[in-house]
Amino acid sequence: MFKVMTWNVENLFKPGHPSGPTDQTVYDAKLQGLAAVINAENPDALALQEIGDPAALDDLVQRLSGTWHRRVSQYPDQEPHPIRVAWLTRGAITDAEDIFQFPPHLQPVQIDDTGKTLGTMGRGAVAITVQSASGQSVRLVTTHLKSKLLTFPGDRFSPHDEDERARFAAYALYRRTAEAATLRVWATAALQNAGDTRPAILTGDLNDTVQAATTQVLLGPPGSEIGTRGFDQPDKGDPQRLWNLAPRMPEGKNYSRVFEGRKELIDHILVSAALVRPLSSFTVEAVTDPPPPSITSDPNARRSKPSSDHSPVVATFASL
After folding, report:
1. Cβ(46)–Cβ(243) below 8 Å
2. Domains plus CATH for the chain?
3. Most CB atoms closer than 10 Å: which of 12, 26, 91, 188?
4. pLDDT over threshold 80, residue 304
């Protein structure tokens, strides 16, 4: 049995940071809320997004039950909002790897009106290997793709006009697509055309829904998604594929964020062929009790709110 959990913990900064809690009381309440959920779920591997300060992660770990190993990305987002991803695991971490540079042939993408380009992921992804309780090696990678919530020059959250909104939405989409392609190239190399025997899990905040083009890039060869006629017909593409487990999430536990009152799943768990069949060999759900709050396009609105604006997503694999 192996349980993996992914959670965007929303701006985990120390008190006083412009994106962090306003005081120690709010900070302590946030840490306690996060720790209570993690301790209740008790995952073997925990992927975290929006770690703003590694020292804040230390404070969170101190509130968790048991002993944890960690790997924090060496490539956070740029100032003034240097968030990053991290892994916490029960077992020892080996083969840690930072994923940051766009792969060969993928050119830098435009990111603003000045023509500035970027040839790296905005927030680096982190891959690790751990051993399951049965002794099987599991390759894990977590990521946080470029946000759909747009920021305009001068740290504005509202555009001057609709033309500016359209341009910056395009810039964000360029980045998110290139980041997804970077991870897909990494996954192809990691699977070594043997995904049917190599347990691999890609998880994190993809900042888009299951059917979004950026999310679909990560799947690799099309045609065998869960719920399609091709799923029960193994073929030569399976050793390279990743499967999104979202179709197996039960009603009411199949969303991870509420935006402007609309439920959406933007935090995902994708797995290699070794972990997707039979469907009875795993469970997956979002922890939506209590449900996440409804948010707006202004991330500063929740600066002093407890816990997170995302629900964690958890998958348990009986085969590991």
Report:
1. no
2. 2-317 (3.60.10.10)
3. 12
4. no
